[in-house]
Automatic annotation (TrEMBL):
It is found in: Membrane. GO terms for molecular function: channel activity. It holds the Pfam family MIP. This is Aquaporin Z. Its main location: membrane. It comes from Pseudoclavibacter terrae. The keyword Transport applies. The keyword Ribosomal protein does not apply. The gene is aqpZ. Belongs to the MIP/aquaporin (TC 1.A.8) family.
Length: 249
């Protein structure tokens, strides 16, 4: 009996396999993108508005982080993965695998939304695609008509702040158990701030997934929403240790 209990304890404590971690990232990114894009493409019909979409984003992050964050770390975003690696919290060698899993999860999510929309009311899919399928953009593709520079600054700063929150609430000195809630609420805040400017990316996997179905304009502007969040994440990742961990005595 004692031996059986010991073996069970070892099995519970064993670190998740690479396959399990990648599956968790795939699942979490699917959940996040499915929640965002389903809510965003239904805005006109449901009347939930930007506030409703922002809340949907935060809720899906909270749910995904509590569900599988203990398996993979709950990144669900290439920018988070790169930022965590820059901060020394994640191995650089694992970054490509995480990013691929996240991108594939996002693409499958938007494909499912596309299939649902294709079987929706007359004109629903056409209207969604005409509106860019909730893609990110600048200029005429920006919800508020903001230009390229404004969008780049917004995405870099918002992502850097978001990564700083993530690194702070997952610091070993932070209270345990509250990180998913804080991260979800922070992402809600940043979406409320950035949807009018860029339609809120902060996540290259989300941007890639929607641009595929959004048409030529989102695809041509996609580089911004890959580059800017990554730059913001790197700034936060490299700055966190000297700024905040350097305060220790």
């Amino acid at each position: 009996m004692t031996t059986d209990v010991a073996i069970a304890d070892v099995a519970i404590d064993r670190a998740p396999s690479t396959a399990s971690r990648l599956a968790a990232e795939f699942f979490g990114t699917f959940l996040l993108v499915f929640g965002i894009i389903s809510a965003a493409n239904g805005v006109a019909e449901t009347g939930i508005g930007w506030v409703g979409v922002s809340l949907a984003v935060g809720i899906t992050v909270i749910a995904g982080a509590y569900a599988v964050g203990h398996i993979s770390g709950g990144h669900f975003n290439p920018a988070v993965t790169v930022g965590a690696a820059a901060a020394g919290r994640f191995a650089w060698k694992d970054v490509p695998l995480y990013v691929v899993a996240q991108i594939l999860g996002g693409i499958l999510a938007t494909t499912v939304v596309f299939l649902i929309a294709a079987n929706g009311p007359d004109g629903f899919l056409a209207a969604a695609q005409e509106g860019g399928f909730a893609s990110n953009g600048y200029g005429e593709a920006s919800p508020g008509g903001f230009g390229l520079v404004a969008v780049i600054v917004t995405e870099v700063v918002a992502t850097a702040l978001f990564l700083s929150v993530i690194l702070g609430v997952t610091d070993r000195r932070a209270p345990s158990g509250f990180a998913p809630l804080a991260i979800g609420l922070a992402l809600t805040l940043f979406h409320l701030m950035t949807i009018p400017v860029s339609n809120a990316s902060l996540n290259p996997a989300r941007s890639i997934a929607t641009a595929i179905f959004g048409g030529s304009v989102p695809l041509s502007q996609l580089w911004v929403f890959i580059l800017a969040p990554i730059v913001g994440a790197l700034i936060a990742g490299f700055a966190y240790k000297p700024l905040f961990e350097g305060l220790r005595t």
